[in-house]
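Write out this protein's structure.
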Amino acid sequence: MNAPVKTSWIDIAPGFAGYLALPSGGSGPGLVLWQEIFGVNEHIRAVADQYALDGFVVLAPDIFWRQAPRVELGYDGADRDRAMVLMKAHAPADALGDIGAAVAALRARSEVTGRVGTFGYCLGGRLAYLAAATTGVDAAVAFYGGGIHGQLDRAAAITCPVQFHYAEHDDNIPLDAVEQVRVAMAGKDAEVHIYPSAHHGFNCWARASYHAPSAALAHGRALTFLASKLHRQSKT
């Protein structure tokens, strides 16, 4: 009997690694999962495993590999302070290079038998949005992507379907910023969902802001969206 999910760390480029989760069948559409500022920690690996159980080949790149390879941080106190330092040192040019490398590496894997999408949380939500604008991914999902509203000049380059998830009460992403995203994506294949009573980080069960009803609803929407966009065409 096959294990439900097979996981390993793989090399994306010299020094740049990622956590790979394979579905029980060994193959499927690809998903690049972008971490929060806290590293490819237990929560991100659990999300990768969850989507692998749903039939996707999931790669979660270690985006802080230059400063702190394989760092895993918690959400409060000194860990949060360190995460903020790492985020501020994460150069935009490096981020774009890593996005391209990770998407290319996943596309090249023999286990990927369908299209390739991307999704992420907070910082990772912004990286998913940038991947949609720069790499030719087939679909993207951004959960409370911080800073997207400051990079809406990239929206014109997006041609793939995109789904956005936002909390109603987010100190980092006010609702007027969400409206800016909605306006910038008007006329495109884009969905914008706002979760009443939710706060930033509502998807993460390890955070105080976890909101189970919103997390369940968002996961269901994201899974339905990604399945519909990524399973339609196989590689030839």
